[in-house]
Amino acid sequence: MDERPEKQERWDRRMETPLAVASLLYLAGYTVRVLAHGMAQVWLDVCLAVTLTAWSVFVLDYAVRLRLSGLGPLRFVRAHVLGTVVLILPLLRPLQMVKIYERIQRRRDQPRLTLYARVMAYSSLTVSLLGFAGALAVLQHERGAPGATIRTFGDSLWWAAETLTTVGYGDVTPVTPTGRVIAVGMMACGVALIGAVTGSFSSWLIQSFTREDEKRPPGGTPGAS
Q: What's the pTM value of the predicted model, to 2 decimals?
């Protein structure tokens, strides 16, 4: 049972759409700044303003939820570690769309997808957003570095796919400290997400086979005459 104050519930519902729009705007503004870095400075400034405005929406949401929670700042941070990390690392902001997707699925407490299907859907959405954001961040810090092998967006996307799937061919690798820190984070996320998908798929198989065994008549075996 959810014991959050009614005001906080109303605030969360009211902010669903603004948070989703702010996530998309932040990602769009950052994408243009990284991929179109040669455009006129005035447009780069506009993109920067868009990203900062989008980030301010998340700061506002965090501050209001802190006030409505009735908790002290330290207790609130401990209870919302992921939300705090996402606030500090703006590139993880698009992952807020996963939360919005989950809320939509849970309308009237009746998820449209089964547990296993939700794990697959959320993991796929998270991997796509994380890979895209990570590719942008690495490209921003790597393309001008001496000895860099990640010089184009195609290179960074290929590297992100290698990293998230834990394949690691080694043909393109980050050489800057910031790029390597991003790589470590994506490796950890990749291992966790692959584990979630694999575990969910295995559980689904076991559940399916168990159902078949329960439906089979007592003493019946496949192929028995």
A: 0.73
